Amino acid sequence: MKPELAIIRIKNLRLRTFIGIKEEEINNRQDVIINVCIHYCADKARRSDDMEHALNYRTITKAIINLVEDNRFSLLEHLTGKVLELASEHEWVEYASVEIDKPHALRYADSVSLQLSYRKPV
């Protein structure tokens, strides 16, 4: 890992959305827990202390909240892919991963989760 590479972690973002294919899931919002990891070169931000040289994690988080709360999803794969698109859309992002948990999806498990990742083409 490059020394100037920064890692932003958005941990346990708890939201509610419509997710699933069963009638109960279609009609009722469910909890999801979102974890995002974003790697980007922060050398300029480190040296300048200027917000223009940094990724704004608040802006990214607000976009994720709007996406999740204002839409319906049948598949966890689709929801995770859409959040990953937001997490990796800035040109500075070299790597991003998103894991989304769907608590109570299985009777005897704490949750079901899905993780997807993006790596900037070389």
Automatic annotation (TrEMBL):
What does UniProt give as GO cellular component? cytosol
Q: Which InterPro entries match?
A: Dihydroneopterin_aldolase, FolB_dom, GTP-CH-I_C/QueF
The reaction(s) catalysed by this protein are:
7,8-dihydroneopterin 3'-triphosphate = 7,8-dihydromonapterin 3'-triphosphate
Superkingdom: Bacteria
GO:BP terms for this protein? Answer: folic acid-containing compound metabolic process; pteridine-containing compound biosynthetic process
Question: Coiled-coil regions in this chain?
Answer: none
Q: Does the keyword Isomerase apply?
A: yes
* CDD domains, per database record: DHNA_DHNTPE (cd00534)
Tell me a Gene Ontology molecular-function term this record carries.
dihydroneopterin aldolase activity
Q: What is its EC number?
A: 5.1.99.7
List the Pfam families hit by this protein, alphabetically: FolB
Keywords for the protein's UniProt record, in alphabetical order: Isomerase
Q: Which family does it belong to?
A: Belongs to the DHNA family.
| NCBIfam families per the UniProt record, alphabetical | folB_dom, PRK11245.1
What protein name applies here?
Dihydroneopterin triphosphate 2'-epimerase
Q: Which species is this UniProt entry from?
A: Shewanella algae
Gene behind this protein: folX
